Fold this protein.
Amino acid sequence: MLCTELSAQNWQERLLAPGDSVSLGAKPVVVESISFYNLAGEEINPIYQFNGGNPAYLLFNPPLLDSIKLRYQSINLNLVPRFSLRDTTMILPPDKRFQDLEREELYSLGTNSTFTPFQALNSQGSLSRSISVGNNQDAVLNSALNLQLSGNLGPKTRIRASISDNTVPVQAEGYTQQIRDFDRVYLELENPDFGLIRGGDYNISPARSSFLNFEKRISGGGIQTKFSSAERQSEGQVHLEGGLARGRFARNRFQGEEGNQGPYKLKGANGEQFIIIISGSERVYIDGIQLTRGQQYDYVIDYNAGEISFTALQPITRDKRIVVEFQYTEQNYLRSVAYGETQFKNDAWQSRLQYYSEQDSRDQPLGAELSDEEKRILAEAGDNIDQAFASTIQAANFDPSLVQYQLVDSLGYDSVLVFSTDSSAQLYNASFAFVGAGKGDYRLISSNANGRVFEWLSPENGQSRGSYAPVRTLVAPNRLQVLNFSSRGKFGTKKNQSLELELAASNNAVNLFSDRDRSNDDGAAGKLAYQWKPSLKKSKFALGASYQFNNPGFTTVERIYAVEFARDWNLPLNYQGALQNGVLDLRYQRDSVKMRSETHFLNSPLKQGWRQSLALNWQDST
């Protein structure tokens, strides 16, 4: 096509000869400015198609039969430089795209596409050294390391790490809201191809469910990866974690004392008196409301002493219901944790399978090895581990620095321990344990001896009067396993109905040394929930119904009901038996009117009941 060109202030005018196309050049064109005129200067509207690019051009269909004038506006931009996300040297030339290539020709990298490892690795932290001296000690060298790393290990692999180490392991005091842990190592690798790999000291927590909720601190590792299916338009996920448990879960419930802000002593799951709480693992509730840690907030906690105190902002009275949930260190057996989760979902449905296992290694005690006699006592105790005691009475030679006893007969009772300093008599060493008021035959008395001295009390009418006994409580290794399956999805013509099903099974072996009382180790639980939200023009309506149950043997990691659930239904505070409960929920909203009605029912061996509630909210819009 032949044409002449006239330029004035970025406006272009061309005389187009008959034909089917015309090029507009490399500069961007304002499409709205394109107009056509005949040779007489009258505007005309030929049928055309604009194709942007470099260069831009017009296609006429049908082709032009006469010469016409074209007028349009262009923009003065230099678009000569070319940019690309990928290396264009890897593109095969046109003459080789449909030919069989040699191996060395299949793939080649340009000189500008090499990757430098650790090129974008960022690090920050501190390394300190100090020397401490004293009039009663030699010089001591102290060191501390705090290091954070983040960056790329490969074209798609990213690393994140946090390493902190101190010569003296110290727990945070718990007097501030933010806690800094010492002696921790955490490493994380992420890649879109294989997912996420992590290891070190960290917390694991599962996806939200009704029967398997927990947060466990471990020293170990794990992997998370995803997969997808284009044909079925679905995707899945696999999550695996494992390691050594740093703590065990415990829950304390008690009433406050009038005017006593603390400290209140916390106990372990088996009634242990002296425990070390893992920093930051606690959750504290008063009357069902969770509190905040800190001197300027609600409470402070001494993790090493296992004691909690409340600030003046939270006055304590005898009517306050206090619940403290926490993890504490247990130095009895090597304790391992394993968790696995797999998930599959599409646009309408989602299913998940979860498995949790936490158990002690019976062959790897962290303290002294158990004797054959102590193992026999545990084997015969079965699930009654609170009755598993081993005698601490041992024959010994006279030692003036120790508190020692003689074994005598008193009032018809054999083998009664009596404090003695007679070097010519047969003496015995013994350690005493607190077994509860009225459950022991000894009491603590005042003495000038170098240590605590205990005195025997004769029973009255067969009832013990003391609180101590010369025994040692034996701790049995245990195991807890929980398997949980959940499935939920939407259905109906408008996807306005949903259904949720969840089933769980547990195995709780409280004494791995014994085969007795195994019939109550297994338990099951389940939940079924339905919801319907019809489409209404001027209002909103929702109907929900759910049913949940668990049998007496079901045990999980942490609680599955609300903090105040037992009180709401007038059940014992630490009730662990069978339960059936359900909810019928109705909701309606239109303009300024909101209404909600709930009906609950409960069925248990101790209590059966119903509870209804109705809430109506109206707001004047005038």
Observations:
- Residues 283 and 325 are 5 Å apart (CA to CA).
- DSSP finds three helices and 41 strands in the chain.
